[in-house]
Predict the structure of Large ribosomal subunit protein uL3.
Amino acid sequence: MSGIIGKKIGMTSIFSADGRNVACTLVEAGPCVVTQVKNVESDGYNAVQLSYGERKEKNTPKPLIGHFKKAGTTPKQKVVEFRDFRVEFEGQVDMGKTVVSDKIFVEGDFIDAIGTSKGKGFQGVVKRHGFAGVGGATHGQHNRLRHPGSIGACSWPSRVFKGMRMAGRTGGNRVKVLNLKVLKIYPEKNLLLVSGSIPGAKNSFVILEK
């Protein structure tokens, strides 16, 4: 599994060759620095650790400062480990090397995008789970249109089961979207144009996997 770390710039749309208007997301993908290479002998598995985004040294924990100095780079904001990096990148992912998007992806590739969805705060069951509400406003139900309804039983089990869908905090979760197509690559600006939407707010970190 090869991939790269990026930042979501925003959404736009382009026209395809057959005249369809395609919604797409612009991502600043890399450049990333290889800050650690793991192998079966020393770590029990193969993996490549990539780092992205500049970070002030005064805001970086001292162990991480040493970790980045060992790779010969400045402190970074985001660190992600990619297991079993594809064999065709052998020699390109040595410690301290820079990984760019156009060396990993080509136009027409299908990729997976991982991001943190937008937080929406404490929400009721209609918005959080898509409940329809109690129903009509007749029979005295003047204030229960968006309520959850019954949530438990009677004398047995005398409790509410765990996992019951109720009101609560919504969003802010790790979300993975599969099979997005790389429509365009702008290597001089490290930009990728990806079909569809990617979870997260503008300028949030995203992980692109191939």
